[in-house]
RNA sequence: GCCCCGUUCGUCUAGUGGCCUAGGACACCUCCCUUUCACGGAGGCGGCAGGGGUUCGACUCCCCUACGGGGUACCA
């Protein structure tokens, strides 16, 4: 039994995987990038929607730039946004190892087989020589430089030199013509295989190049669908030719996967999202006070939209509706506004206790929480969270509950307190409200407050509340006033009202 | 330069030849609610890059131009 796969290769039926296997293959040369995270998310949604397997593979073959710390950041970030892998370096799995540096013998084995079969060969030029050749070609006005195989004489000379460590290059078949494949998101894509010359598959230090490693790894890990960024489209001819070469040698261990290239994520200036735009790593956003779930939810909607229309949903909810064909073809711009909105939605969705637990680290980083008991802190946070965009907004929203001196220096503040009207309100508040106010519960305070506002008619509500609010918090808006009074407690309220009255007298 | 991919409101998108006087979301504006601010609710503003075809009929199909992105490595 045979099945014709996308490229038209004939493959035994036993190769056809009975389940979806996808992977995300980040290289630990930095913290988990937003773009990589989104790709991981799409892979994950597809896998979960299909009942498939999601694999994490670490592409650490770039020894210069790979760092262990980044590996941990990638793991943590992925898990933070709710993505768990079924196979990976830390959890193991049947197709391991899952780090490329541990797979070196595999690449070398396959590279050697290609050499033995004459489909690849050893090349002895140094990188310096190659760079020089490339530059010379550009100088002389040559349009596109291609690697030139050395003449037999030169080759013999190179081989005779024991200091030269050979790399292995794949011999691009001269007559291969256009490589055509069906992209699951874009449809038919056709690229001339002869644009690039023979390419390196194994570097002289024995590590594989990206194009070779992915093919070997995807094949050995029996990946069924490769979902990745569109920056990889131009690699398709090389990878397809590699699959073809392997197949011609009967070395293909699983059929060539299907490919889906998704549009990239761009910065607001339409360039690639990079450090100069600020945060680029998932962990950067988390540190800024974005909830991983909200962040993930936002990312899911970059280049894809749920057919059912509901934009806020869990990963499982999205997975049910996820279709590769529905992924957008064009790049998406990463815009903060909508992310902020999602974050606010998630902040408001939580129970007060959950919110307290999540917000606490952001609070305790700034203030000493010991003066309040937990129920009070929960109330405090619950009272302000409707106003929050990110978790890091919390400290400035509640600072007047912790600081001893209330800052009252803005123009607006002065204009509220320095008026005769404002002063009268404060005087009346001090005289009528404070003595009879019951500070034992916010509810009791709310009732008294209502009465007080009523008693100040025809003054508008704002005219009554603002001077009080400014005296207590240094700002014209904030948490529910009765809760503010309750949390502050009778002593601090009295002090702040009194000092507000004094301060104004002295400065007016 | 060359090759590849792309182009619907400011942004994310729905739309696969007639359902489109182009739908939704964010942002923005207005109003309502309200113990402030916010949240929430109701409205509004705003778009098929341009030009040629094909067709009885194009946002949808084809071609060209413009613009954007990606690639052009012993990086991934």
What does this 3D model show about the protein?
This protein has 19 helices and 13 strands. The chain has 508 residues and is mainly alpha-helical. Helix 12 crosses helix 13. It binds one RNA strand of 76 nucleotides through helix 4, strand 6, strand 8, strand 9 and helix 6.
Provide the structure class.
mainly alpha
Low-confidence stretches: 1-17
Terminal CA distance: 95 Å
**Quick one: how many beta strands?**
13
Report the sheet with the most strands, covering strand number, pairing sense and barrel closure: 3 strands, antiparallel
What is the molecular shape? elongated
Oligomer: single chain
What is the residue-averaged pLDDT?
A: 90
Strand order of the largest sheet: 5-6-9
Strand composition percent: 5-15%
Instruction: Count every helix, treating DSSP H or I runs of 4 or more residues as helices.
Output: 19
- Rg, nearest Å: 32 Å
Which range best describes the helical content: under 10%, 10-25%, 25-40%, 40-55%, 55-70% or over 70%? 40-55%
Descriptors for this entry?
508 residues; mainly alpha; 46% helix; 10% strand; elongated; RNA-binding
Q: How does the SSE layout of this entry go?
A:
Layout: E1 2-4, E2 10-12, E3 21-24, H1 34-50, E4 53-56, H2 68-80, H3 104-116, E5 120-123, H4 127-139, H5 152-160, E6 167-170, E7 178-183, E8 187-192, E9 199-202, H6 210-220, E10 225-229, H7 236-248, E11 258-262, E12 265-266, H8 282-287, H9 292-300, H10 315-321, E13 332-333, H11 336-349, H12 352-364, H13 374-384, H14 394-398, H15 411-417, H16 420-436, H17 442-455, H18 461-473, H19 481-507
Parallel strand pairs: 3-4, 10-11, 12-13
Antiparallel strand pairs: 1-2, 5-6, 6-9, 7-8
This protein binds one RNA strand of 76 nucleotides through helix 4, strand 6, strand 8, strand 9 and helix 6.
């Amino acid at each position: 039994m045979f099945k014709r796969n996308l490229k038209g290769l004939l493959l035994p039926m036993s190769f056809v995987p009975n389940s979806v296997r996808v992977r995300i293959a980040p290289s630990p040369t930095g913290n988990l990038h937003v773009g990589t995270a989104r790709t991981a998310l799409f892979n994950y949604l597809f896998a979960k929607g299909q009942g498939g397997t999601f694999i994490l593979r670490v592409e650490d073959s770039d020894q210069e730039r790979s760092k262990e710390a980044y590996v941990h950041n990638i793991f943590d970030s992925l898990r933070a946004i709710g993505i768990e892998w079924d196979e990976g370096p830390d959890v193991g799995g049947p197709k391991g190892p899952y780090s490329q540096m541990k797979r070196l013998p595999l690449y070398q084995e396959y590279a050697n087989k290609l050499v033995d079969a004459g489909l690849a060969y050893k090349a002895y030029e140094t990188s310096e020589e190659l760079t020089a050749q490339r530059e010379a070609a550009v100088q002389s006005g040559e349009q596109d430089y291609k690697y030139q195989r050395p003449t037999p004489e030169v080759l013999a000379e190179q081989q005779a030199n024991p200091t030269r460590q050979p790399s292995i290059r794949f011999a691009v078949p001269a007559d291969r013509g256009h490589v055509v494949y069906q992209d699951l998101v874009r449809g038919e894509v056709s690229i001339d295989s002869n644009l690039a010359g023979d390419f390196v598959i194994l570097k002289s230090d024995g590590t594989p190049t990206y194009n070779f490693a992915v093919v070997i790894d995807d094949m050995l890990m029996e990946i069924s669908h490769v979902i990745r960024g569109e920056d990889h489209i131009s690699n398709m001819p090389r990878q397809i030719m590699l699959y073809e070469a392997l197949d011609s040698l009967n070395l293909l261990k699983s059929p060539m996967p299907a490919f889906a290239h998704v549009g990239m994520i761009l910065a607001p200036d339409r360039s690639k999202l990079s450090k100069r735009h600020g945060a680029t790593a998932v962990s950067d956003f988390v540190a800024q006070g974005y909830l991983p779930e909200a962040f993930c939810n936002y990312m899911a909607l970059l280049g894809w939209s749920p057919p059912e229309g509901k934009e806020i949903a869990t990963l499982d909810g999205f997975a049910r509706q996820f279709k590769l064909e529905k992924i957008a073809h064009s790049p998406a711009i990463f815009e903060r506004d909508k992310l902020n909105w999602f974050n606010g939605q998630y902040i408001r969705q939580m129970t007060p206790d959950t919110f307290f637990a999540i917000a606490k680290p952001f609070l305790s980083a700034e203030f000493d929480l010991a003066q309040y008991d937990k129920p009070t802190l929960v109330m405090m946070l619950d009272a302000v969270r409707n106003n929050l965009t990110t978790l890091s907004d919390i400290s400035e929203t509640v600072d007047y509950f912790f600081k001893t001196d209330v800052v009252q220096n803005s123009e607006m503040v002065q204009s509220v307190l320095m008026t005769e009207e404002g002063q009268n309100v404060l005087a009346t508040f001090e005289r009528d409200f404070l003595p009879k106010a019951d500070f034992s519960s916010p509810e009791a305070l709310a009732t008294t407050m209502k009465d007080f506002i009523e008693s100040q008619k025809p003054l508008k509500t704002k005219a009554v509340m603002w001077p009080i609010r400014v005296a207590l918090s240094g700002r014209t808006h904030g948490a529910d006033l009765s809760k503010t009074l309750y949390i502050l407690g009778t002593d601090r309220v009295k002090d702040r009202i009194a000092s507000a009255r004094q301060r104004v007298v002295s400065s007016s």
